[in-house]
Structures are given as structure tokens and as C-alpha cells.
Prior knowledge:
The chain is an alpha+beta fold and 267 residues long. It is built from 8 helices and 14 strands. It has helices spanning 68-73, 83-91, 97-102, 105-111, 117-124, 168-171, 223-233, 247-266; strands at residues 8-10, 22-25, 41-44, 53-56, 59-63, 128-132, 138-142, 147-149, 152-153, 160-167, 175-181, 188-196, 200-206, 213-218.
Amino acid sequence: MDLNTVSEFVPHPDLRDWREGDAWLAGGTWLFSEPQPTVRRLLDLTTLNWPALVVRDDGLEIAATCTIAELYEWRTPDTWTIEPLIKQCCDAFLASFKIWNEATVGGNLCNALPAGPMISLTAALDGTCLIQGESNNERRLKAADFVVGDNRHVLRPGEWLRAIHLPTSALTARTAFRRQSLNTYGRSAALLIGRTDPDGWTLTITASVKHPVQLTFSYEASEPEVREAVLDAIPDELWHDDVHGRPTWRRHLTLTFAEEIRQELTA
Ligand SMILES: Cc1cc2nc3c(=O)[nH]c(=O)nc-3n(C[C@H](O)[C@H](O)[C@H](O)COP(=O)(O)OP(=O)(O)OC[C@H]3O[C@@H](n4cnc5c(N)ncnc54)[C@H](O)[C@@H]3O)c2cc1C
């Protein structure tokens, strides 16, 4: 859609020249999908040529501007186990080919929708977000803590998400994925991922809740213990409620999937 309040497009932005009314532009799939009455300038991040996917000794760095298509087509090193999980999360996108090819991993996190599958992926794989800001300052925080509510994240005005780092320990772990939506190509109503660690397993709950909820369990944790921990961690107001699913159903899916994942990872 035309954004008729936007008067300037900055194709090669100076990232430190942030003004009121600015918006970072990544794939634009959300920005151009609805009115943005407060936006005056669009600062294009995609021209900064951040390398999309960099394998390091300690893991993988995904640039915020890496597209869903690039991530999906990428072949992981042979010793990593998470290629199927990457594909499952990309497939969890309710996306036409236009969105698939333009939407970015960083844009998905910064959009901060409960059903953001890149939020699910990076949170579940113990990701760390690299956040940069105007005065050359940098900070890092867990991907699981980046989104704090429906369409709300931790970035301050003028800050941008530069990259997400996933550690090797998570990239070589066993994982279990469960997802449900109201219809085949619907937005996720619940998306849960389990990941093994040497001492136990980690459960990441997304889509059914307004922001990710992450819990760790020992391999001995029983079905009632997991169920109780999930219910304790999610107060009534944290269950997400919209046309893609009512809270009661999302709660039911979450508890069912948590148990399936427990059985799969502790078998
Ligand atoms: C038909 C349709 C279906 C969709 N389905 C889904 C879905 O299933 N799940 C889902 O989560 N979303 C969905 N979306 C929303 C959107 O397409 C995705 O969230 C997408 O990943 C956004 O990425 P983008 O690169 O296009 O971001 P943009 O639209 O460019 O930006 C999104 C927001 O993030 C900010 N931003 C982008 N990159 C950065 C950065 N690096 N640092 C700081 N801020 C940044 C922008 O300023 C903007 O506020 C859908 C949209 C449409 C139109």
C-alpha cells in the first residue's frame, strides 16, 4: 500500500542519523501492509550488505537482513542437526512467494508478532541478539527476551537489530517441533520447540502466548511437573487471543505439545 505520510526514502542511510518519524525498512512486507501514520522517512537496511549467514567457530551469525528465502535454501554444515528445524520454522510462515523472498529474519523479530516463526527459531536455539544504537553503543540480549508483548520489543528509538548469534551447542542439539493453526496455511496458533542440553531439555513456547516463554527441565521431569511448570509460567493474560485462535484452545494445544515434546526428547 502507498504510505502517504512518508516524504523521504533513504536508500543508503547513515544509521546514526535517526530522527523522530523514522522507520527502519527491511523487507517491507509488514511496513507496506498497513497504514503507518507516524512514519515520515524510511531508512533502508537492506543496502548495507551485511553478510546473510556467517559460520563462526562458536556458531552461526544470522544478519537481521537475511531473508527467509536465503535461510531456507542454505545448507548447514554436516555436523549440525538443525536444518530440518530451520525449514519447519520457515514453513510456519503464512507467506506468499513475495513475502517469502523479501521478508527478513530481523524484520520478523522486530515485528514482534506472537506467530513470528523466526522469533520461535532463534529463541529455541538459545540465540543472542546484537543490538546497535546511535552513539556506537552495542548490547546483547537473549532472543527469548527480545519480544515483550504482542507487537512490542525491547528496541529503543534509534536502535536497530544487527544480527542474531546461535551457539554451536544448540545447532548440534536434538530438537522437537510442534505447530498448529486453524487451517493448513493459517497463522500459527501454537508453536513449541524442544531442545536437548547435556543436563536436560529446554521448552520454548510461542504463538499461543504474547511473548516467548522458555522453561528448562531435567530428563526426569514427569508429565504433571511439565504441565504445572507451563501453567505456572503463563498467567491468564499472557495467552494470545485473536481471530487465529482463542486462549482456551491455545492453552490446550500448548499443554498437549509440551507433553509430546517431553516424550520425544526424553525417550
Ligand atoms: C499476508 C501476510 C502474511 C504474514 N504472515 C506472517 C506470519 O505468519 N508470521 C509473522 O510473524 N508475520 C507475518 N507477516 C508480517 C511480516 O510479513 C513478517 O513479520 C516479516 O517477517 C517482516 O519482515 P520484513 O523484513 O518484511 O520487515 P519490515 O516490514 O521491513 O519491518 C517490520 C518492522 O520491523 C522494523 N525493522 C525491520 N528490520 C529491523 C531491524 N533490523 N532493526 C530494527 N527494526 C527493524 C521495521 O521498522 C518495522 O517496524 C505477514 C504479513 C503479510 C502481509
